[in-house]
Specification:
The protein is an alpha/beta fold. It has two domains: 148 residues, no CATH class; 143 residues. 30% of the residues lie in helices and 20% in strands. This is F-box/FBD/LRR-repeat protein. Pfam families: F-box (PF00646). It comes from Sesamum calycinum.
């Protein structure tokens, strides 16, 4: 009787006989540490997890992380055993180290479509992204936080997405910037200071910039911390300004626009568009600007 019950239990294991793509979908819904744990279910499950296309090392993984192995050694083992494409790779909640550039080199050949790298360290200079980041031919979604991109020969920068902070350093070759974004912060402003003004921190060192496109979200971001009348160093190479504001009633966007114009003495082309079709509150904007004089 006992043998009969055991046999019926084995026959009832229908999950193991599902198509591999269905099993992959099931494992994808599990946190990575749980997907790996399925390897102890039976000999047939020992390596089913190695084709999971989503590798997520995040706070959930960190909270379940235990043992004498470092997170770096675990990731090396996962990548070494993995087979097939890696659609998503996420690494956040840990402090970055030099190993991550080796991972990027490995991942660049695995058709990664979404890459999320969030450094838990507060100093982005502790880790520089290598040129391997720019070799992902299938990459469609990139999220970076608390990192520094080392690209001293960069000439053009285009960004579209959510923005918490962005700064440029060692970018003497940068000629063109286009940023369309929705800032992830609740806007506050104060009197401008060198240590607080986003306008100064982001654009204050880009003396070679010739073309700049800012949408209303980025103009609002530049206004955070206060907007100076003009930048400490003129943008003497600036020739083309393309600016999109919500409307002229959004006062701090207008301040950002005026600061950029005042700081570009050799400007040749200026285009300002409004995203709001309603009539702007010109009187409110005028009163606000006069109060700042």
């Amino acid at each position: 009787m006992a043998r009969t019950r055991i046999r019926r239990g084995l026959d009832a294991d229908r999950i193991s006989n599902l198509p591999s793509n269905v099993i992959d979908n099931i494992l994808t819904l599990l946190p990575l540490h749980d997907a790996v744990r399925t390897s102890v279910l039976s000999k047939g499950w020992q390596y089913k997890w190695i084709t999971v296309p989503y590798l997520v090392f995040d706070w959930t993984f960190k909270n379940n992380f235990s043992g004498n192995y470092s997170i770096e050694s675990i990731i090396y083992q996962v990548l070494l055993l993995h087979r097939g494409p890696i659609v998503k790779f996420k690494f956040c909640g840990f402090k970055f180290g030099p190993d991550i550039n080796n991972w990027l080199y490995f991942l660049s050949d695995h058709r990664v479509e979404e890459l999320v790298l969030m450094n838990s360290g507060y100093d982005p200079e502790q880790w520089l992204i290598s040129h391997n980041l720019f070799t992902f031919d299938h990459l469609m979604h990139l999220f970076l936080a608390n990192v520094e991109v080392d690209a001293p020969n960069l000439k053009s920068f285009y960004f579209n997405g959510a923005l918490t902070s962005i700064y440029f350093k060692n970018a003497s070759c940068l000629r063109e910037i286009s940023i369309t974004c929705y800032p992830i912060f609740r806007h506050t402003t104060s009197e401008a200071g060198d240590d607080d003004s986003n306008m100064i921190k982001v654009l204050g060192q880009l003396s070679s910039l010739t073309r700049l496109y800012c949408d209303r979200g980025f103009l609002q971001f530049l206004a955070k911390g206060g907007v100076p009348q003009k930048l400490p160093v003129n943008l003497n190479s600036m020739r083309y300004l393309l600016l999109n504001i919500t409307d002229f009633g959004f006062k701090y966007q207008v301040c950002s626009v005026l600061c950029l114009i005042r700081s570009s003495p050799n400007l040749q082309s200026l285009r300002i568009t409004s995203a709001n079709g309603s009539a702007p509150d010109m009187m409110s904007a005028t009163q606000f600007l006069r109060a700042r004089e």
